[in-house]
Predict the 3D structure of the following.
Amino acid sequence: MILIKLGGSIISDKNKPFSFNEGVVRNVAAELKNLYPEKSFILVHGGGSFGHPMARKYGIRGGLAAGETKKLIGFSHTHEAMLELNEKIIDIFLKAELPAFSISSSSIFITDKGNIVHGELKVIKEALKIGLIPVLFGDVVIDESKGMDIISGDAIMAYIANEMKAEKAIFLMDVDGIYDREPGKKDARLIDVIDETTVIRHGMEKIDVTGGIKNKIREAMKMDCMVYFINGMVKGNLTKAIKGEKIGTIKKRK
Ligand SMILES: Nc1ncnc2c1ncn2[C@@H]1O[C@H](COP(=O)(O)OP(=O)(O)OP(=O)(O)O)[C@@H](O)[C@H]1O
Ligand SMILES: [Mg+2]
């Protein structure tokens, strides 16, 4: 099984609330169409300009205090915004005749102080067995200590990669990989291989309630499998990473 994260930064414009980059998702579907069903896939997508602004508006990461009924409404609204984005993605895959199947992360995960402490993966495993392509997403989550929190698509990637022994994990981003400093900045250098010793700098980031690039790297470091960070806006890159060609930034198998 190959695990693929459709970064919120490629499926939407994180500077424009509720924007959707249909073309990018169509390209991903077209590439997977050539590889499915010989290979099996689990997809995870980020919040992009749907989830992040809603989570910030309702202060979901701040947790739930006693009597905060209004926040529960915000919790559900944030989830609905993610379902809206998820539906757009699923529709594109179905049109390409790929059996993408939505699984809400908030229905199968529980966190404690932001860490996943429970993940109900049986349905995902069985879905894979019958040939479905499960599609999960960064979502709201019930947290044992805080009441509520946000679970990032990146954390879901790490959990599933290890629990389900993924062959490899691929992060599709809007830049060519991991840079030693803010991408686009003068002298910024693309790093070929990252490991525990890698130190990067990051500049002003677009809205991201779960820690942006630093947290993405932290989650990738937990994974036992090979991890790719590639530019998902460029057609053909995903196929190259799946086939094991040298592209973007990699983290080697532990
Ligand atoms: N040193 C760096 N190397 C690579 N990317 C960086 C770096 N510093 C900042 N970034 C930015 O991090 C972004 C990717 O992280 P971010 O969490 O915003 O995206 P995402 O995971 O695609 O979105 P989402 O969280 O909605 O899924 C890129 O858009 C990139 O511009
Ligand atoms: Mg992010």
Residues 2-49+82-109+117-139+154-203+218-241 form a domain with the Carbamate kinase fold (CATH 3.40.1160.10). The longest helix spans residues 69-95. DSSP finds nine helices and eleven strands in the chain. The chain has a mean pLDDT of 96.
